[in-house]
Design a protein that fits this description.
single chain; about 200 residues; mainly alpha; Tetracycline Repressor, domain 2; elongated
Length: about 200
């Protein structure tokens, strides 16, 4: 009989989520609570103590995965030299992380695509967090004269919408590197030109 090390509840919950994410990437939406329990060598009842339904587990796993995307976006902003460079870096980092973590892996793409189409709470929260961070940088950029006038929150949402084809996993899969769609760098540059202060020269 295997004796498993004792873990506190937070550690166990995190382990369940990371295992569930690994299985979702291998098996897709057909992953079950029993699959997760088997992988962890624990009973299904123990998993149910933390996540009473498969939907609860899937929601939490989606939230965790998108949290890593947001961390990458925030890190890109933190290392940029100017507000404008921060916005540009965030828009591009969102593409790269979505491409690498959500789109290149077909099974993960399947889960995230369902989450986006069904508007899971984790998706809405992720978009709100991204828009809020971008809006903050736009406000700083307006104060520095880099960006034109307007409500920073509205401009942030507009910039994200302009980049939808390189942020949405399904659109990345359909459009990336396929004629006549421009590449992600060109799409991000397009959004940045829309934000630019028209009196500033040269362009950002």
């Amino acid at each position: 009989m295997n004796i498993l090390p004792r873990r506190d509840p937070d550690e166990t919950r995190a382990l369940i989520l990371s295992t569930a994410w690994d299985l979702f990437r291998q098996l897709g939406a057909r992953t079950t609570i029993a699959d997760v329990a088997d992988a962890l060598k624990m009973s299904s009842a123990n998993v149910y103590r933390y996540f009473p339904t498969k939907k609860a587990l899937t929601d939490a796993t989606c939230e965790m995965a998108l949290g890593t995307v947001f961390e990458a976006i925030a890190e890109a902003a933190a290392t940029a030299a100017t507000p404008a460079k921060a916005v540009e870096a965030m828009l591009y980092a969102m593409h790269v992380t979505m491409r690498d973590q959500m789109t290149d892996d077909a099974r993960a793409h399947e889960i995230v695509d369902v989450a986006i189409r069904e508007r899971w709470p984790a998706i809405d929260a992720f978009h709100v967090n991204c828009a809020t961070l971008i809006a903050q940088m736009i406000a700083h950029g307006q104060a520095a004269g880099e960006f034109g006038p307007g409500d920073p929150e509205v401009l942030a949402i507009g910039a994200m919408a302009a980049c939808a084809c390189v942020h949405h996993p399904s659109l990345i899969a359909q459009c990336l590197n396929k004629d006549p769609w421009p590449g992600p760098e060109a799409i991000v540059a397009f959004a940045m030109r829309a934000l630019r202060n028209p009196e500033q020269s040269p362009p950002l």
